[in-house]
Amino acid sequence: MEHVLEIGRALPAGDLLTLPARTAALTATIRAVAAGDQDAFGRLYADHVRMVHAILLGRIPRRDVDDLVQDVFIAAYTRIRELREPAAFGGWIATIARNRATDYLRHTREQVELPDDLPGGEPIDSETFAVLDVIRALPEAYRDTLLMRLVEGMSGLEIAERSGLSPGSVRVNLHRGMKLLREKLGTDGWHGHE
Amino acid sequence: MSDYYLFDGSGAPDPDVVRLEQMLGRWRSTTSAPLIATSSERRTANAERRTTYFGVRFLGPALAAAAAIAVMVGVTWYTTASPTSAEATVGKGSWQVAVIIGTPRIGADALVGEGRISVGQTLTTDAGSRARLDVSDIGQVTVDERTRVRLVETREGHHRLALDRGTLHATITAPPGQFVVSTPSATATDLGCIYSLHVNDDGSGLLSVEVGWVAFEERGRESFVPAGASSRTGRINGPGTPRFDDTNEAFRDALDEVDNGRDAGRKAASLGYVLAYARPRDAMTLWHLIPRVDPPDREAVVDALARRVPMPAAISRDAVLSLDRDALDQWWDTLGLDEATWWRKWKQPLPTGSGVSSKKSLATKSRKPTVGR
Is A73 part of the contact surface with chain B (CB cutoff 8 Å)? Predict the structure, then answer.
């Protein structure tokens, strides 16, 4: 199977042209949040929750991801005045999420960790958990980008817009991450598509 | 094969990527935005934190000396002074938490035995843990398994929790309006009572009142829920019409359809059932329905209520149909529950240090909020 990396592929013009408008909208939203506007906070949440969820899912047990997502956004809300450049919000909250995950793992290291596939929840086959484990073992840049794409259904442009990465970097991360994932899944018993 | 599909879903689907999307997409984020304190609430919390900081760091020695002098000059003062003020100073901006069973967490930290939860922190229980919160000095909240609550605000006369999901049971002994629980789809304001509140993962929920009253409100739509009654709440429509828990299942289902149904025919049939089978005791439910139904249905609801509890002679049918607050309140006062005036008063701020201990003794002017739809 041949995989062609097309970094030079033209991105949709419409999306690029609206970048200043998106930045202006984000700036206005963040200023409104800083002023206590709860609706604006809801918009900010809706725009970035998938990215934060993916970052946490790649690091901590699935059962605690939703709780930490909420913690991350509450932390962002209480510290929003510290954000000097509104356009950097995506990278800023991603950093908060990574730090919260690190804190979580540090605090829970000495506790007995329950497996992700504990009975009682939604029935999910063991292969799915195995795939998640393999993705979690990938380098951070590939892991986060792949989870945003494969779990959250974000497009490459959405990932770039939310994370602050360039579309080209996202494309590289997706391509290389997927290549590594295929290799590791092949080694670890992934049968690929039937 | 190109990476078009991997990048943005365009081009020929990559079978591996498609399969991974199907497998992993089940874990896509579904949580709703956390409830947050308003800017004024944050200012209050910050001010309280500053007060505590200065109190401990800089004024501590002076306060310690003053306390020593106070002990020396008068044991009598000590025995008669209210303990509330001292406790309030110690616990400002936080509540005592105790484990009932298992290992709840405050933030990321496991709670063992007892601890404190501060404004902005969350208390999370898993399938094997429960905890008890002391609501300042006005009551207690028991947090059941699989629950997440956050302390949004606590100051004299105003305490607020956010219940993101799960179940809590509150026992509050304070004047109305002092204890508030926000949920994703409605806000419960204690009017002096014991109640349980449950929130599902999708933000919908159920309020059940055991003693006293609870006001359940969202975007101007209000339900006043008395002891022995419940009110469902949903993301779209907010608090549902309250009903007594001893109504039969068919009645409850019909009422849910009236509140949330989308099919006009089924809604009409369900409303007909509710109006036909409401007991005299269900006048409380019918009264709440008056402003909630569409105007063409309002006359039928008014007629049904009038058959259970006659309309007072002092009010006119037109006033009720036009949702005149005074007219509706006067009719409510004849339902044999409590007078409307006192549960409308909870929105009035209490005089600081009034020492009011009974909602009946509140000497505030009745305010006239809009009847919620």
Answer: yes
First to last CA, chain B: 57
Of B16, B25, B124, the CB nearest to A192: B16
The answer to whether the CB atoms of B3 and A171 lie below 8 A apart is yes
Q: Are B329 and B337 in contact (CB under 8 A)?
A: no
Amino acid at A183: E
- Residues A23-59 pLDDT 10s: 888 888 998 998 888 888 989 999 999 999 999 999 9
CB–CB contact B16 A193 (8 Å): yes
- pTM score: 0.56
Closest CA to B327 of B291, B362, B278, B363: B291
Give this complex's ipTM. Answer: 0.82
Looking at the complex, report in whole angstroms how far the Cα of residue A24 sits from the nearest Cα belonging to chain B: 22
CATH at residue B182: 2.60.120.1440
Q: Which residues of A touch B33 (CB under 8 A)?
A: 41-42, 45-46, 49, 73
Nearest beta carbon to residue B3 from set A5, A50, A57? A5
pLDDT digits (tens, 9 = 90+) for A131-162: 999 999 998 889 999 999 999 999 999 999 88
> Which residue range is the domain that position B117 belongs to?
31-67+92-240
What is the rounded CA–CA span in Å between residue B318 and residue A166? Answer: 64
CATH topology (fold) of A124-194? Arc Repressor Mutant, subunit A (1.10.10)
The total of structural domains in chain B comes to 1
Judged by DSSP in three states, B117 sits in strand
Q: Which residues of B touch A170 (CB under 8 A)?
A: 7
Domain A32-109 belongs in CATH node 1.10.1740.10: yes
